[in-house]
Amino acid sequence: TWVKLSEVTVKGAQYNSPECYPHPECLQGTQVDLLKHINGFLDDPEKNQLIWLHGMAGIGKSAVVFTVAERMRGLKVIEEMNVEKRLAGTFFFLCKKIECHTAGYFFAMLVYQLATNFPSIQKDVNRVICDDPALLDPSTPLCDQMGAFFLKPLWWLQIRLHRCPPLLFVVDALDECTSGT
């Protein structure tokens, strides 16, 4: 089942994918105040962990999101862990593959990355897929995919990581998402 999941993931949608090249990174000395605010917000476990950047096209939102993801990629949930990272998953809807614009691949991609970064839940994810293989079909309702591929795995991790800094999922260009497969 892990192989089946990997086959429906859109690796080109990861923030640092070669298919998203050139990567839109903030130049040194730009967006300093905004990045400082976002990083402080993400580092505070008492804060609600949803940040939504909005603004006109071309003002650098993707560069900010990429820069934040790049920083978080190197941070561990617990320093003693060498695999489990705070950057739990990314999906950039603007990349060149058609699947990168399709909502049906979104949750499968996020759970694939989450289980790769947190191998302790891979068996649980495999069990969910064995119980309902249709979840891998991109035309499966998003609410079903979200519950099985996103909420359940996060619940399994919540108990184990409850005193750790929050995990981070980075999504860019959600407005480019389509519902079709």
TrEMBL record:
<dbReference type="Pfam" id="PF24883">
    <property type="entry name" value="NPHP3_N"/>
</dbReference>
<protein>
    <recommendedName>
        <fullName>Nephrocystin 3-like N-terminal domain-containing protein</fullName>
    </recommendedName>
</protein>
<feature type="domain" description="Nephrocystin 3-like N-terminal">
    <location>
        <begin position="38"/>
        <end position="179"/>
    </location>
</feature>
<keyword id="KW-0677">Repeat</keyword>
<dbReference type="InterPro" id="IPR056884">
    <property type="entry name" value="NPHP3-like_N"/>
</dbReference>
<dbReference type="InterPro" id="IPR027417">
    <property type="entry name" value="P-loop_NTPase"/>
</dbReference>
